[in-house]
Design goal:
Elements (H helix, E strand, L loop, with lengths): L7 H8 L6 E4 L6 H9 L5 E6 L2 H7 L7 E5 L5 H4 L5 E7 L5 H4 L25 H7 L2 H12 L4 H12 L7 H11 L11 H11 L2 H15 E11 L2 H11 L20 E8 L3 H6 L7 E7 L1
Parallel strand pairs: 1-2, 1-4, 2-3, 4-5
Antiparallel strand pairs: 5-7, 6-7
The structure holds S-adenosylmethionine.
């Protein structure tokens, strides 16, 4: 399946405020945003794109452009590459690419059989199968509640424990079937494993933890008037973004005079931008996207 870049024009209209600037695409994917940034910036501008997924990095490494640099690492390593206040714009297009679900071998899909892995970066961490082998029922249940909002977390976790005592859970379809077999509601449109697979993916990749760390670093490496654009796909990501940029004045007790409090260094210049109906018709995955844009002040 082709990967369509989400909110492409909208995001780049905010991001590229200086044609000869220095930019970072934190989530290269299949290069949709990266290619368009390269088309918009001047010959003396710079773009660095990160992706922790090796397939994505290998795709990026094929780009021959002297202003472009690809890095195979997590976006929580921005400060390893950039000094304080040196970058003009940073883009995040969070989550997965459609390419992760196209083939079973990456272990993301409950529709295609494959090893139960789910790591973006297969050179680090442990696959989901290894985690499920050792996790307690409480740990599994907590992940399903916390990252999947799965109200049937208790019976799913109990069934996982029951199955793993007989056979190792090694494949995506095996896990999908375990969930489908005990799922109390039979829904036609949404596969019963949808929420669980999302929850396990977020956990195994420490998606929310790395996002928080990255935003902290992004705020340091950005120049004054620099722009951060974040496209999120679910409320857990979006809440982290909102919370991070929330003016710190809100967190102070009422008896401290307002003029002694430093506000966060960012101004929200666009919130809750969503794809048009035309974009959603063309690319169903874009329907849950929310974009927020912040300017360093
Ligand atoms: C939605 S896709 C990006 C699509 C891209 N904008 C495009 O148009 O082709 C998200 C990408 O972010 C990558 N990713 C997820 N978490 C990451 C992290 N912590 N650090 C770096 N890349 C990450 C995934 O591997 C995936 O390729």
């Amino acid at each position: 399946m082709l990967h369509f870049p989400v909110l492409l024009e909208e995001s780049l209209d905010f991001l590229i405020h200086k044609k000869n600037g220095k930019y970072v695409d934190c989530t290269y994917g299949r290069g949709g945003h990266t290619q368009s940034i390269l088309n918009r910036i001047d010959a003396d501008a710079e773009l660095t794109s990160f992706d922790k997924d090796l397939d994505a990095f290998n795709h990026a490494a094929l780009i021959k452009n002297k202003n472009f640099n690809a890095i195979h690492n997590s976006f929580n390593k921005l400060e390893n590459t950039f000094d304080k206040e040196t970058v003009d714009g940073i883009l995040y297009d969070l989550g997965t690419c459609s390419t992760h679900f196209d083939e079973g071998n990456r272990g993301f899909s409950f529709l295609h059989d494959g090893p139960l892995d789910m790591r973006f970066n297969v050179t680090k961490g442990i696959p989901l199968s290894a985690w499920l082998k050792k996790a307690t029922q409480k740990e599994i249940m907590d992940i399903l509640y916390k990252y999947g909002d799965e109200k049937h977390a208790k019976i799913i976790s109990s069934s996982i424990l029951d199955h793993r005592s007989k056979n190792e859970i090694k494949s995506t379809i095996q896990l999908a079937n375990i969930i489908e077999d005990i799922y109390p509601e039979k829904r036609k449109k949404i596969h019963p494993a949808t929420k669980s697979f999302q929850a396990f993916r977020i956990h195994i990749n420490n998606e929310l933890g790395e996002l928080k760390e990255s935003l902290e670093q992004a705020s340091n490496i950005l120049v004054k008037n620099g722009i951060i654009v974040v496209i999120s796909f679910h409320s857990l990501e979006d809440n982290i973004v909102k919370e991070f940029f929330k003016p710190s004045v809100m967190n102070f007790p009422k008896d401290i005079p307002l003029n002694t409090i430093e506000e966060k260094d960012f101004k929200c210049i666009a919130k809750k931008i969503r794809p048009t109906e035309e974009e959603v018709a063309l690319n169903k995955r874009s329907r849950s996207a929310i974009m927020r844009v912040f300017k360093k002040i």
